TrEMBL record:
PANTHER family: INNER MEMBRANE TRANSPORT PERMEASE, TRANSPORT PERMEASE PROTEIN. PROSITE patterns: ABC_TM2. This is Transport permease protein. It comes from Rufibacter sediminis. The chain crosses the membrane at residues 29-48, 60-82, 102-128, 143-170, 177-193, 230-251. The keyword Metal-binding does not apply. It comes from the Bacteria. It is a multi-pass membrane protein.
Amino acid sequence: MIYFSTNRAERLWLLAKIEFKLRYYENKLGLLWALIKPITDITIYYIAFNVVIKQNIPSFVAYLFSGLILWNFFLESTTGTVQILRTKKFLYEYNNMQKIDIYISTLLANSIGLFFNICMFFAYFFLIDKEGDNLHLAVFSNYIYLIPVFFNLFLLSIAFSLVLSTLYVFMHDIHQIWQVVAGLFFILTPIVFKTEDYLRALPVFAELNPMAGIIINFRRIVLQNTSPDFYLLMLDLGYAMFLFLLGLFLLKRIGSKAAEKL
């Protein structure tokens, strides 16, 4: 059972801030690195899919930006925590800290970067983008649905983190395996392709790939100012909850052996 006292919540937030600062502490560009990767990716994919292939998606940069920042959060949260039971062994061995708190604080640190990128996205979309229809700036009625979408993203990310990191205790090559699988997931997620083309060509994967539903619903809310697809929303929350419970089970059964195995 997971519960949070005031002291525990404060400790989690403190650990998250420390980890976020340490990540950029020795970098001269500091927090700008949190934005450089999505900007670099956007430039590459913009040239490939809008200049060369000519996807002809209205407001393509905003469309691409919205998908990449969510995907990068998911990828960073999962690949960056595969070895967490080894790299942060001292926290649960000597500080009597619950293992799940290590995951939560790490993803909270990633969430700070996500929040920074989301702010940059909204600044671009509402102030710079000239292709899209931004007249709905004052209409925020559907934006309340961003809360379950972001909760879904966080829960899904921590669920994958739990499963992958506990498997790493006995199978060290899970890190390489996940990089291959994540590359396949990227192709099967509507990040650089039109949503309509994706749903027409791969309708099954829209239901089987929870990241697809998260990105589709985020774009529906922000770019189209419509309510999310509630079927996809509930389906993706179901996937995330199932994987999270599986991850907690594995952490309890396998994670207890991490100190002696790693």
